[in-house]
Amino acid sequence: MSTGSPVGSHRVVSPAGALPQAAVRLDPDPEIRDDEVRVSVERLNLDAASFRQLRTKHGGDGAAIRAEVLAIIAARGKMQNPVTGSGGMLIGTVDAVGPRSPLGLESGQKIATLVSLTLTPLLITDGLERWDGESEQVPAAGTAILFGRSIAAPLPDDMPEALALAVFDVCGAPALVRRVVSRRYHSAPTVAVIGAAGKSGSLSLAAAKDAHAAKVVAVVRDQVEAAQMRRLGLADKVAVADATDPLALSHAVTEALRGRGADVTVVCVDVPGCEHGAVLATATGGTVVFFSMATSFPQAALGAEGLAADVEMLIGNGYVPGHADYALHLMNAHPRLKELFNTRIGAHA
Amino acid sequence: MSTGSPVGSHRVVSPAGALPQAAVRLDPDPEIRDDEVRVSVERLNLDAASFRQLRTKHGGDGAAIRAEVLAIIAARGKMQNPVTGSGGMLIGTVDAVGPRSPLGLESGQKIATLVSLTLTPLLITDGLERWDGESEQVPAAGTAILFGRSIAAPLPDDMPEALALAVFDVCGAPALVRRVVSRRYHSAPTVAVIGAAGKSGSLSLAAAKDAHAAKVVAVVRDQVEAAQMRRLGLADKVAVADATDPLALSHAVTEALRGRGADVTVVCVDVPGCEHGAVLATATGGTVVFFSMATSFPQAALGAEGLAADVEMLIGNGYVPGHADYALHLMNAHPRLKELFNTRIGAHA
């Protein structure tokens, strides 16, 4: 068997020339090419937006939801909700590794995929019979395929699965924050994390500290979160502001930094309308990193122009080499960060 | 009179706390604060999308279009089409300069505003009586206000007004390309400009050359544009590809660069769906600069993650200090670039 395309285009059935994520249908054949990996699936984690749409559509009827998920996977060769466009991720055990796979995985390893289900060839063999259709956690049997450029991370032995998945879900953020903070400046930069109490926000705080930021400001929406931040102990200053109010946000940041904007502003608030405030809160020559999927490209571009703001604006790329390991390292280095995550995922540590 | 907010929030009438661009209504009072500049308006250039909407709505009735533009400006204190949200720019003569204005303008200078009409306080005094409502070029009399952080550029003596405006319209692109190319790499980077035959694309080519890129690839959509690029003479290689076909685009770029992706990929194609191709066309560790307003933030972020692409993605900020002068400099340094622009704006040079 020869090697495939590293991005998986050889698995695209239709339309011709598309990449797997944009494809209508993938070929989930369990036979692997020399650079592919086959995973024996144990559980699908459906994307929250996708599961919500399915539950609403079927009025909470679990059997109908299960039937539709099965039908989608059978028709598309992948789990991509046709309405929301979103997928999720999966957990499984490495089943077969092609001799030319560059992923470094070994048979028998328990892994989570860090690429979306929307581009992962998937074949279900148990009719999802163990799933009641009432939760986005889907026990499943079947096979999934990883390409040469897919990303998967071994699940750590020393961490509950749900916690590890919550960390993996946002692991791109701390890795990129570390990179931006440690390489961009001659002297240590100041950092403001907007939405610091969430998962990507709190990991970004830890990364900024770890990368020796001169001063780290946590911006949160209310006093409850402010108290959480003080207990977390990773921020030099904690400020409360509405991130969608540009003048209030920039005032909160510049006040915390004694009259200057932040050298690096990290946006982790998942609501629309934070672009202008983030730009205004950033010092001339500084950098804004947008991780929120609610970010509007035109709002950011035209906002910075309208404010005559000489700032660099980065689209938060979810992939940075070593991101999963780095996020786990931060989590283990900060017990109170782990506590915060357990609160977020509803676990009792 | 005291100074105002440098971003103009003191001119916002409603809603309270908004920035001028997001405001429903601005105060266009001609009396200026100490850091403001008053411009005597000569002509408005309505944004193309805005004018199209108005013309369609009124079935091409020029008098009705004029009446609506007048009503919008009277109601909002600025020209911002409530349907498209867009504005345009204006040309005028500097009328009064506050003693603490940082803009460096002098009374009597003829200027173009480089910030949008959507955030510029505007008062019309002639009822737009010289405008027939049949073109987006609106002869007008009245006053406009510039803030401390507004941007305006003197119109050059040695260039037709229409050409200068076309250059100003995209002048952020070459300035940012120069910055990225000249500061990001230890050795000179290779550059691919996607959509190189347009205004921002061709200026980006010139900037990449000027910044001593190792090799510059112009990617265009057809042979007509390819011939224009060869005549322009600013690219080392010219490639033809559909920018919305990710595999075709990346193949065209890597072929032109002998098997490697570009260190810097500049996206100037104003159609949706170019994100994944641009990411795939970029070398590991490289940079993608998105200038197209059709760029989708989630498509770029999730695309790079799905492709496990370690690339930095920049939101093209339309403001870089000195951008207007630099673009005029490039235009004057390359007579064939000027020819190309004249073709684009329909002028006969």
- State the CATH topology of the largest domain in chain A: Quinone Oxidoreductase, Chain A, domain 1
Straight-line N-to-C gap of chain A: 47 Å
Spatial extent as radius of gyration of chain A: 21 Å
What string, H for helix and E for strand, traces the elements of chain A in order?
EEEHHEEEEEHHEHEHEHEHEHEHH
Class inferred from helices and paired strands of chain A: alpha/beta
Domain tally of chain A = 2
Portion in helices of chain A: 25-40%
CATH class bucket of the largest domain in chain A = Alpha Beta
Mean pLDDT of chain A: 94
Total number of beta strands of chain A: 14
CATH superfamily of the largest domain in chain A: Medium-chain alcohol dehydrogenases, catalytic domain
User: How many helical stretches of chain A?
Assistant: 11
